[in-house]
Design goal:
A five-stranded antiparallel β-sheet has the order 2-1-5-4-3. It has a five-stranded mixed β-sheet with strand order 6-7-8-10-9, covered by helices on one side. Helix content is 50%, strand content 22%. Strand 4 and strand 5 form a beta hairpin. It has three domains: 118 residues, Beta-Lactamase (2-Layer Sandwich); 78 residues, Single alpha-helices involved in coiled-coils or other helix-helix interfaces, CATH 1.20.5; 124 residues, Heat Shock Protein 90 (2-Layer Sandwich). It contains ten helices and ten strands. The structure holds adenosine-5'-diphosphate and magnesium ion.
Amino acid sequence: MESPHALLELILDTVPQPVWVVDHAGELVFANPAAVAVLGYDDFAELKGKPSHQTVHHHRPDGSVYPAEQCPLLRPRMSGESVRCDDDWFFRRDGSMIPIAWRSAPLELPDGRGAVVAFVDTTERRAAEQALRERDAARIRAAESRATGRRIMESATAVRRQLARNLHDGAQQQLVSLLLELRLIREELGTDPARARRLLDEAAEHTQRAIDELRELASGIHPAALASRGLVSALKALAARSALPVLVTGAVEVELTEGLEACAYFFVAEALTNAVKHSHASHVVVTVTAREPQFTVEVHDDGVGGAAPGGSGSGLAGLADRVDALDGQFTIDSPVGGPTLLVAEFPL
Ligand SMILES: Nc1ncnc2c1ncn2[C@@H]1O[C@H](COP(=O)(O)OP(=O)(O)O)[C@@H](O)[C@H]1O
Ligand SMILES: [Mg+2]
């Protein structure tokens, strides 16, 4: 029959749980094979008699020295309490670090109180947790990008519908009546050349109107004014067409990309449309500032406030997407009662 002590060592030899014992001085007097293996040693003889803290716990993960007095792992020797930590680390023999969870309990030994420490390598558990976190983050990102994609599709559909409407109501209408006029002119040519000439003058005028209409329409797709006159002038032209008095101020001290200019232009266009449609404002102030490291566009109306994305409209949600697509920040400050301030900020 083995002694209880020898039996215990036999058991500890075979269990997969790493266990070690330190004496009253904090020196290793026992480590089972599982502990020896986790720490990267071949044999307990390499660890025997060594101070445990200075051997496996001497530095913090940030590289700073970890004084033994501060280490809770050794505390049970002194205080008699049991201590645990699920978020610690040990150094292996080759200097690599492993994440560790440990339990340390006081243990009465022949020459004073020591501690028994049971620990596990948490590398796999952490990897699994990290994988879960990444999976959740990926799911959230996928859901967000689906929602953005949907909004972009919806706004693209809305733009197409608007274009079709404008083409139908504007340019197509003009071209159809032009066709009728030309047919009439052909009939009149033989019988009443003077009338035919008058009709031709009118037809030329109507052609010009159709051209203007198409140009307007095209400038809604990519504002021609932007390319020819620059952002501030294009915004002033936009402001001049608004049903509200609009003041455009600001300074563009750096060259902006075409994408940023177009984004700013449509931002102001939608904000002005909203001010006219919803705000009951008396006037609007548009401010653009492009100075390293930031490009800021602000639209301020003195109206009733309460602007919020969502609901039936897609204008503000579209603006949020537009700004987001260029790494910008979009903020709406529009308390009920007013006023309303829309801001888009882009890093330069
Ligand atoms: N400048 C504003 N002042 C007051 N309310 C506003 C303003 N801009 C937007 N709103 C409110 O926010 C809602 C959402 O605006 P938006 O997304 O542009 O949709 P839409 O203009 O098509 O209604 C509007 O329906 C309106 O109630
Ligand atoms: Mg709107």
